[in-house]
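Lecture 7 notes: from sequence to structure.
We start with the chain below.
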Amino acid sequence: MRTLVVVQARLGSSRLPGKVLLPLLGEPVLVRMLERIRAAKSQFELVVATTSEPEDAAIVSLCQERNILVFRGSTNDLLDRHYRAALQFGADVVVKIPSDCPLIDPAALDHVLGYFLENKDNFDFVSNLQPPSWPDGNDVEIMTMDALKTAWIEAQRPFEREHTTPFIWDNNERFRIGNVLYPGGGDYSATHRFVLDYEADYQFIRAVFERLLPRFGAAFSLPEILELLSREPELMALNRTHLGVCWQQKHLHELKTLHLPQPSSGLPHATN
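Predicted structure tokens for the same chain:
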């Protein structure tokens, strides 16, 4: 089976415009994130799916310079963008990773994709988000091409088109859905924010890269990040005000199947 990892990226973010091209130790954020994805051991093809907006020509140029596959599609219909990118590159399995995850652990991709491929006859969709247990910013969602096509044909509500996979989540009687919890039973989803949406997130992510990249290289691991934060807990204060902020909060009364991080004491706890 041909596995395609699709990283959705654009410059038109309303909260932090141009965030994927912000500098991060000599490289754009997007390049640093792709370095981390490419460090995964799994076999896949990687494509950046951007928009047809003129401003996103800068993303296309960057990808071409770095020999990275790139696709241009709809600005707001991410479901259409993922489906058409998958069609163009002949994917059987599609992995969705948003570009606001520059600290994604390569092992998270290996872990979730490995589980999906080992159980490919039993699942149409597998993620590590339903329910979440990994630090926010390690998002991996995997679906068969058939599941993606069904969603592309049938999804109607605007947020289902904009966010690609809610139609699949909300039709668990039709799709065989699996979830991968954080190894060892810990839950960091409500206490650790590694996602890039605000300036404060950028300051946090840059601080982590400044400390770990010179020592471990671009593919430093999630355990190494957690160990750093245990030594320097003050780093987590940089973006703590945005902890738990996510797009699903705007659709609490529309999503039938909704898993949000639950507030906790700040200590990891087991999830069943």
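Points to note: The CA atoms of residues 8 and 98 lie 5 Å apart. Confidence is low (pLDDT under 50) at residues 262-272.
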